[in-house]
Design goal:
Blueprint (H helix, E strand, L loop, with lengths): L1 H17 L5 H12 L5 H30 L6 H11 L6 H13 L2 H8 L14 H30 L1 H16 L6 H26 L2 H6 L12 H12 L7 H7 L7 H29 L4
Helix pairs in contact: 1-4, 2-8, 3-8, 4-8, 5-6, 5-13, 7-8, 7-9, 7-11, 7-13, 8-9, 9-11, 9-13
């Protein structure tokens, strides 16, 4: 049943994303604003933020466990469906990426930057000194964003249940939206811990869903990179699994200068295709686990 719930939630979330509807980030921000008013100081803000996430996660775990003990586990599935639809999702990307690709094709890199700068982390908005760097920043942000809004939630939901999925997604939200910015680095460090295993599983999946030969020669090395951050792992693995220099704009411009205007769209399409195929691999793996009785 976990497979059915996740599939329905994933398909529903994709349709909502296409319509740019129901952003979970707005709900997180509203909850954090209401909860942080009584916090004072960095330490107090950090622990208050963790409590805001941990308490509902514990209640959810106890509630699902109690229903399971009573033999009413089915009653929790509608709640899990709504929870997954809320936790997953990356609305707000479709229009900026389309405008970015169009501006890139015209050669208007300033307009391309204008369309996507608000989607980049604040720390990276001054780092795009060239079209190559701008595109790599966008690619890295897009992959990390999709990973944390879909794959991370899917991993913890399957491995440890809806409470773990809620907690993991909540830590990401604290890192991005907690009002007391001084506490966010601590949340970012905890997010990297929660991301560590699923990010490397996704990096492995890139080899299965992409160019396996290229991934075997280069991408597999990131699996042993214990200290590498999530975006570094995903970028390195994706670069090795994609053909046509999809994540190497400098090399592409040297080899195919006449096709440079179409590079922005081609690269983004390749990234999205790899992520979609990787999710299909995860869904197939989940189906096998269900058939084997593991899940």
């Amino acid at each position: 049943m976990a497979l059915v719930v996740f599939l329905l939630a994933y398909l529903t979330r994709r349709k909502l994303d296409a319509a740019n509807a129901w952003s979970g980030d707005s709900l997180w921000r509203a909850a954090f604003r209401a909860s942080s008013k009584m916090s004072a100081g960095n330490g107090a803000g950090k622990w208050k933020g963790l409590l805001v996430i941990a308490v509902p996660a514990v209640v959810l775990a106890v509630g699902v466990g109690y229903l399971d003990k009573l033999g009413w586990r089915m009653a929790a599935y509608p709640l899990e469906f709504v929870l997954l639809v809320t936790l997953m999702g990356a609305p707000g990307w479709r229009s900026p990426l389309e405008a970015y690709s169009t501006s890139w094709a015209r050669g208007d890199m300033q307009a391309a930057w204008h369309h996507i700068k608000d989607n980049l982390p604040p720390r990276d908005r001054g780092a795009a000194a060239s079209p190559d760097e701008m595109h790599l920043l966008l690619s890295r942000t897009l992959m990390a964003h999709v990973f944390e809004r879909f794959f991370l939630v899917a991993f913890w939901y399957v491995v440890a249940g809806p409470a773990a999925a809620f907690f993991a997604r909540g830590i990401i939200a604290l890192r991005d939206h907690w009002p007391q910015t001084a506490a966010r680095p601590d949340f970012a460090a905890l997010a990297e811990v929660l991301n560590w295993l699923p990010a490397r599983l996704l990096a492995f999946t890139f080899g299965v869903a992409g160019d396996l030969a290229g991934w075997m020669s280069e991408g597999k090395r990131v699996l042993a990179g214990i200290t590498l951050k999530t975006d570094q792992v995903l970028m390195a693995a994706a670069n090795s699994a994609l053909t046509g220099y999809a994540l190497d704009p400098g090399r592409f411009s040297q080899i195919h200068p006449d096709e440079w205007p179409g590079y922005g769209r081609r690269s983004l399409d390749a990234i999205r295709g790899l992520l979609n195929r990787s999710m299909l691999v995860w869904i197939c793996l989940l189906a096998l686990l269900v058939i084997a009785g593991v899940v």
